[in-house]
Design brief:
With 335 residues, the protein is mostly helical. The chain contains 16 helices and no strands. Helix 2 runs antiparallel to helix 16 and helix 13 runs parallel beside helix 16.
Length: 335
């Protein structure tokens, strides 16, 4: 599985439910706390991160390289085995979340910078912590991995034009430059990590346990830089941005699940669809917003980075509880 924002391997966890499940839950719990703490540091001491803005794309490249290191050819074989379900997940992701971002921005009458930031979050590929959250929800992990992989690979072709189409009314969007940035900060590091895994797999395997934490720490630094860059505006805008993020993420989870049920994919696959649609690569959105718009436009991505892990974990726990309750034997009559 991959890391963004990130967590231990969900596919590995399936093979060893005890310890891996505990490790997955621990990472999903710790990551939002770490990112929230980083945001607080950026808000309290913005001067400490002065001049860090140019480092954000390189930090994202580290996260994406770690993602590539966790990938295997099996991730791509899953696409070939279930092309219809993966295609549905991909279309749902890149239709529902960008559309919701535009609707939320209009409904809340967000300023141009914040509106562009919310839309950019919606146009980003799947948030890769979705894999482990799908596992914790007892969803279809293989489908989740396949959709996340493909959505990341096609991001250079899909994210810039969608951003231009939906956010262009708010701010100028240089889609060509955005394509180049996504290639450099996402696709190339992911491919490099995948190649390293293929040729040096036995060495990489020894470090797999540390990769999620390295990614989480790097994302936390990105959030601190983003928050520091817009610290002056956060006090007046934070509540509104949080509302936008909660609506965007919550509706995405619900509509993603609904798309799976409407397509009759079954409950496990529908759960995977929920998280693949509702959870975004907010690290990429923050990097692109910082580079192409402003630190204020990156604020929705920074808040989304915390919130979607919290909401995803809660929804996954609720889904898993429903499963357990459904399997519980009925009490004998008279007891």
């Amino acid at each position: 599985m991959r890391t963004e924002q990130t967590t231990p391997s969900a596919t590995a966890a399936v093979g060893a439910p005890g310890g891996a499940d505990r490790a997955a839950r621990r990472a999903v719990t710790v990551f939002p706390v770490l990112v929230l703490a980083a945001g607080a540091v950026g808000l309290a001491a913005p001067d400490a991160f002065a001049g860090w803005k140019p480092s954000v794309p390189y930090l994202l490249g580290v996260v994406m390289f770690c993602m590539g290191l966790t990938m295997t050819p099996a991730d791509f074989q899953g696409v070939a085995r279930r092309p219809w379900a993966v295609a549905l997940g991909l279309v749902a992701h890149y239709v529902i979340m960008p559309g919701l971002g535009w609707l939320v921005a209009h409904a809340l009458d967000l300023s141009p910078q914040l509106a562009a930031g919310v839309i950019l979050v919606g146009c980003a590929p799947s948030g890769t912590a979705s894999n482990v959250v799908t596992y914790l929800a007892r969803g279809d992990v293989a489908l989740s991995v396949s959709v996340a992989t493909v959505s990341t690979m096609v991001a250079p072709l899909v994210t810039p034009p969608l951003t231009l189409l939906l956010a262009g009314e708010y701010l100028p969007v240089d889609a060509g430059s955005m394509v180049t940035d996504i290639l450099k900060t996402v696709l190339l590091p992911v491919v490099a990590g995948l190649l390293v895994r293929l040729f040096l797999g036995r060495y990489v395997d020894r470090a797999l346990g540390a990769l999620p934490w390295l990614s989480a720490a790097t994302i936390a630094v990105i959030v601190a830089v983003v928050v520091a860059g817009s610290a002056a505006a956060i006090k007046s805008a934070a509540a509104l941005v949080l509302l936008a993020v909660v609506l965007h993420n919550g509706l995405g989870l619900a509509l993603g699940y609904g798309a799976g049920r409407l397509a009759r994919l079954g409950a496990p696959a529908s759960r995977a669809m929920a998280f693949e649609v509702g959870m975004q690569n907010s690290g990429l959105a923050a990097s692109l917003a910082t580079a192409h718009f402003s630190p204020l436009a990156a604020l929705p991505a920074a808040i989304f980075s915390v919130w979607h892990n919290v909401s995803g974990s809660l929804v996954a726990a609720w889904m898993a509880h429903k499963d357990k309750a459904g399997r519980a034997p009925s009490s004998p009559s008279g007891d």
